[in-house]
Amino acid sequence: MKRTPASGTRSGRRGEAARDVDVRPARRRARLALLLLAGTAALVASGTGSAGGWLVLLGGLAGLALAGAGLWWALAHRGPARLLGVVIAVAGPVGVIILYTAAGLWAIAVGALALWVGALASARSALRRLRRPRGMRGRRTPPPRRPVLIMNPRSGGGKVERHDLVARAEALGARVVLLAPDGGSDPEAEAARAVAEGADLLGVAGGDGTQALVAGVAAAHDVPFMVLAAGTRNHFAMDLGLDRTDPAHGLDALTDGVELRVDLGDVDGRPFVNTVSFGAYAEIVQHPEYRDAKAVTTLDHLPDLLLGEAGATLDVHADGTRLHAPQAVLVSNNPYGRADPLGGGRRPRLDSGLLGVIGIRVESAAQAAELALRGERAGAIRALPALRVEVTADEAPLPVAIDGEALTLPTPVVCTVRPRALRVRVPRHRPGATYAPPGVDWRRIVDLALGRPLNRHPQDGRGYSTMDAPAVGRREAEGA
User: Fold this and answer.
1) Stretch 248-270: mean pLDDT, rounded?
2) Alpha-carbon gap, residue 346 to 364, rounded angstroms
């Protein structure tokens, strides 16, 4: 059993770690970021010395906010009102360009924008030096002797056939099970049958929904799991560091692979590898026409969902935190690096033992404008980590989307995570996951530049302070 050191020992080790970590490169980048930020302010001030100049600057910010408000208006309405919203969304940035050109501030605006972009890049580089997660540690294991790969020929627009995955897998000694093109096959049952017949590895060439079902069988029988990136978006493969452009490269795991231990999400007894969605997106994907006409279906149903005229009213409890009546909620198997309600970002780790929760509620054009100006730090977005998430609603059953698959579940819907429950075999040589840079919090940049304590701020989505570099390294090393 692992012993927990006394507080004095823990503090001593933290002090030793702090001495071992060189934060000077990060501090230099933080100071450069503040210098570029000051240069941006000075350049703007030099070109807007008069009251009229400052009004032009404020007009530019107002144009950006107007674009956000117009976009919300376009999404939340139909007919002429939607057209008006589109006009406003386009007129905002176009008006800013005309305003700056007419005022003779075009060159200053471009220079200020360049300095601002440089400041953001330096700030993110500084935080990256402290937060950059260590890769999940793999261990060498013997190649499987009786691998079974389940392939969906419809996934990804026919990637199984296009990349000749069946023949390539069989040439390496794997048995291939092809799912019926009409969707009549049950991948979970096929996986259970393969294990009963002696399979010592289960693999999937298909979408994230198929991967989740087979991963649940693999975890239940403690059998290694393998992913071929043959789906459409391949989020799980991306966060495993696989080559999404060449699904066949994943077959290298059969002969020269390493094994990772990753978490597996659970929603009411059903496994998920990426996300469970509630609210607007989950409601929209229930419609049969969504598969062939995503944009049209979304625009048709979104107004009623945003204005509260359709869909269930959600009540979310993430550990001790309540999110009341969000329009959309995303629960992820490990937190995303950025608070993207659409799940379009990346997860720095897949073995933190935590769920990520992102909720969004935009009720007015004003909130949409704030979202355009502040991004993920806007009040309309809530992001937090959790061990357990419970979702109730005023309607039952509740529409959900599990790894993109549309389902309905009885309430309450409970999401949990099974830490390191899944053994995943990946190629020893693989591209690796692109690091998702952290969001910039200028308070932390100032603290870092001035040499203030690095653990003054709340915890981030992975459960520890973004500025406590020694603690980050120690926790990730223990979890590897």
Assistant:
1) 94
2) 29
